[in-house]
Each structure stands twice: as C-alpha cells, then as structure tokens.
Specification:
Blueprint: H1 18-25, H2 32-46, H3 54-60, H4 67-73, H5 85-94, H6 100-125, E1 134-137, E2 141-144, H7 160-174, E3 182-184, E4 186-187, H8 190-198, E5 204-206, H9 208-214, H10 225-236, E6 242-245, H11 254-262, E7 268-272, E8 274-275, E9 278-279, H12 282-295, E10 300-304, H13 314-326, E11 331-333, H14 340-347, E12 352-355, H15 361-366, E13 369-373, H16 377-394, H17 404-414
Parallel strand pairs: 3-13, 4-5, 5-6, 6-7, 7-10, 10-11, 11-12, 12-13
Antiparallel strand pairs: 1-2, 8-9
Bound molecules: protoporphyrin IX containing FE.
Protoporphyrin IX containing FE is lined by residues 5, 27-28, 39, 42, 57, 107-108, 111-112, 115-116, 119, 131-132, 135, 145, 149-151, 155-159, 162-163, 166-167.
C-alpha cells in the first residue's frame, strides 16, 4: 500500500480560471519538477505559521475571512469531482493574483479545511478510522489511507502538526455543545491521562491539586506553575484533546499568560478568578480572559468563578459569568455549585461546567450542564487506593491493579505520534 502512494498523482488539464486554474497550479495535483517546486513553496508558506483555529490559519496564510469561500471549493477540489459555478466564483474571488503562490495559499486552506474538520469530528466521536479514507493515483488507482492517515512519500501531508492542534481544539469545543454533558476526568500525570483515554474518555483535563501534591507543593497558592506547565506541554502531544488547569495564571501578567497559552498546544485551559487571598477584581479577570482569547482564539477558555466557594452572593456569580463571557470566555465553571435553579440560570449564560456530584450526568444534563469534571477526586481516590493496596499486601492479600504490560501499552498508544 505504501508503494502505491509513491506513484504519480492524476494529472489535471491546464485552466485559466476558477477551480480548473486552482487544480492546475497546486502541489496536490502535480508531479515531477512542478511538484518539487510547489512543494518547496508550500513548505515555505507553512514555516513558522502558528494557528489555534482554521480562522486563524486563514489569516496567517494571508486570506482572512476566506473560510466561506473555501467551504464552497473544498467539495469539488478533487479532479474526479465535477466543479460548480459557485466554487469557480469562490476561487476567482480569492485569486487576487494568478500565480503559484496565490494558488498555494488557497490550496493549503482547502486541504486544511476539509481534512481538519473531518479529523475533529473523528476526535469528537472517538472514531479511530482515518479521516481521509482514500487518495488517488494516476490510472484510476484508489489507495486506502488506513495505515497512513497523513499520507506517505512525496505527497505526504505537510500540515500534520498544525492540523492535529487545530482539530483537537475544534473537537474539544464541539464536545461542549452536545445534548449530553462531557464527562471530563482530570489527570495528574502522563500515565493517568493515557489510562483515562484508553478507557474511552475522549478528552482529559488536569487537576491542580494532583499536579501540585505529586510534587510536594501545596495547591491554591500559585506555587506549582512550573510543574503544571511542564505537564501541559507533555500532554499536548497526546492524540486527543487535553485541557490544562492553569489556576489564575501563576501571578504572571496577562500578556505573558496569553503568550504561554498560545504556544502550549493544549485544546483548553481553566483560568480562575480566585487568588491566594480572595477574589480577583472582575475587570482585571475579564482583561486577562480577553488577552488570552485575542492571542489564542481556538483554545477553549473555561473561566472558573470562585464566588461560590467563598460564600459570595448568587448575583455576583452570574454577574462575573456574564463579564467573563463578554470578554471571550468559551465556558464557565463554578466549583461547588449544586443548587438546581442556580445551575439552570448559569447554564443559560454559557456552556456550564460543574464538579461531579450526587446527581447523575443525565440529571445534570437536564439542568443544562455541558461539562462535568472530576477535579481532584481521581487523584485523591488513587492515593487512597495506593495506601489501601499497600495495607492489603502487608495483611497478606493482593490488590487489583492494571497489569505491567497493560500500562506499557497505554503509554505507548499515547505516544503513537508516528501513525502516519
Ligand atoms: C492545517 C491543516 C492541513 C494542511 C495545511 C494540509 C495541507 C496539505 C497539502 C498542501 C497536501 C498536499 C501535499 C502534496 O501534494 O505534496 C496535503 C496532503 C495530504 N493531507 Fe493534509 N493538510 C492539513 C490537514 C490534514 C488532515 C487533518 C489530514 C487527515 C488526517 C490530512 C491528510 C492528508 C493526506 C492523506 C495527504 C496526502 C494525499 C496523497 O498523498 O494523495 N491533511 N495536505
């Protein structure tokens, strides 16, 4: 199968306008010298491009706001598909110049749009099949991409890293807009994150207590920033969306927090308005949120509101929720929230996250909750089980545990970044 991917791609006739011009000018449908030249151009255009969403990618490629036109072109981009007048018009709108570089920019975005949305949908639903199932070669050969989801050989996808980040961000966002709430378990290290994913959880968060305590640092004082960021970086390479608890940004100025998040590679972050000695001024917190969303629009920002824990009035929680959402927060998280009417009220403002509690996911979903996190519960349960297991051994028993090989398999599946 890999050898078939090395064969020439189908050739396309020359074209002066519309989709025909695009096809005849891009790397995707070129062979030989034209492919070598256009491939180098494509790689140069992608060099240093940083984007957390497809919109941001369009801007980075010099085509801001182009996604509506791209969505028109993508379904008829392949030469075996008949083109449409709407797609031809879309190409002509975007083709400010008829040169290879302009075609390369449009082509990159077309390739990115269809495949990245397909990958995001597979991540959202846990579908392990390749998002682009087949590709074609000259002579009508159809090649399965089962073993090479990002292709192989000279035409292999040059956008893989970027695509994976954007798809994870897109999938994570979509997981907050479903009829049933997302049950989001919180990990404290690499092994716990991969074990949770292996058990079928489609996304994983981190727990600040777990990360801090594992390093012998007390939680909630902003002292475990280095460790939290190091873990987030490690988990960002996993092939599923990860969201990192960054407390209140560890005392850094807003622009530094924004820059950090833009380059962390995680699909989501939690930022809380609690401070070591009380609550942040809501305006200051809104400015932090706005700075992060400006710099990393594709990263899901879950704004934790700590009023409840600190016994503040109910109105203050709703007021802060509205301010944070106006500043760009994608979701709100009120830890300690259990009262049904207040849950319903806050759930109307934005996707609402609560901690796991007596009510079932179905009951919480009926109240409008979109995300249920376990917070530090799993870490505390693991600690308890560790002690109970040691006690069992001391008392002559053998506790239940994952097998050695099972753990090895979990962490290697997690690092399987060479699947293409
Ligand atoms: C930022 C997003 C993406 C960009 C910019 C991008 C760009 C490209 C480009 C320019 C090519 C043509 C390379 C050539 O012909 O030399 C390509 C090929 C390919 N891409 Fe992507 N792509 C993106 C996302 C994806 C995703 C999410 C997948 C699926 C998992 C994917 C799968 C492929 C495959 C399988 C090929 C090779 C096709 C073949 O050999 O016939 N791409 N990509």
């Amino acid at each position: 199968m890999s050898e078939e991917l090395l064969l020439p791609v189908p050739s396309v006739p020359p074209g002066d306008t519309g989709v025909a011009w695009l096809r005849s000018s891009v790397v995707r449908f070129s062979n030989g010298d034209a492919h070598t030249r256009r491939r180098a151009l494509t790689e140069r255009l992608l060099e240093g491009v940083h984007a957390t969403s497809l919109d941001e990618l369009a801007t980075a490629l010099g085509l801001p706001g182009a996604l509506t036109d791209i969505a028109e072109i993508a379904p008829v981009y392949q030469p075996h598909e008949p083109t449409t007048a709407a797609a031809d018009a879309a190409v002509d709108r975007l083709a400010v110049r008829r040169d290879e570089e302009t075609a390369a920019r449009i082509g990159l975005l077309v390739q990115a749009w269809a495949a990245t949305n397909a990958l995001a949908e597979h991540l959202r639903t846990g579908n392990p099949a390749p998002p682009v199932p087949v590709t074609r070669r000259a002579g009508g050969i159809v090649v399965s991409l089962e073993d090479h989801p990002f292709g192989h050989g000279p035409h292999a996808c040059p956008g893989r890293t970027l695509a994976t980040t954007i798809a994870k961000n897109t999938a994570f966002r979509a997981l907050h807009h479903q009829d049933v709430p997302l049950v989001l378990p919180n990990a404290w290290d690499y092994a716990s994150a991969t074990a949770l994913h292996a058990a079928g959880f489609l996304a994983v968060g981190t727990t600040s207590l777990g990360v801090a305590a594992a390093h012998g640092i007390p939680d909630g004082l902003g002292l475990a920033g280095e460790q939290a960021v190091a873990l987030a970086r490690m988990l960002a390479d996993l092939p599923f969306p990860v969201t990192a608890d960054l407390e209140s940004g560890f005392g850094k100025p807003a622009d530094e927090v924004a820059e950090l998040i833009a380059h962390l590679g995680v699909a989501g972050v939690n930022l809380e308005d609690g401070r070591p000695h009380g609550l942040a001024d809501p305006q200051e917190q809104a400015e932090l949120i706005a700075a992060v969303k400006d710099r990393a629009p594709g990263v899901f920002l879950n704004a934790r509101i700590d009023t409840h824990w600190l016994g503040k009035a109910r109105e203050e929680t709703a007021d802060r929720a509205r301010r944070y959402v106006d500043a760009g927060a994608d979701g709100i998280f009120v830890a300690g929230l259990t009262e049904p009417r207040e849950i319903e009220e806050l759930a109307r403002i934005a996707p609402l996250n609560v901690l796991a509690q007596q009510r079932t996911p179905k009951e919480l979903g009926d109240l409008g909750v979109k995300r249920i996190s376990t917070g530090s519960l799993l870490f505390r349960a693991a600690l308890r089980h560790t002690v109970a297991s040691a006690e069992a051994v001391r008392d002559g028993g053998l506790p239940e545990a994952f097998g050695y090989a099972e753990v090895q398999a979990m962490i290697s599946r997690g690092t399987r970044s060479d699947a293409g």
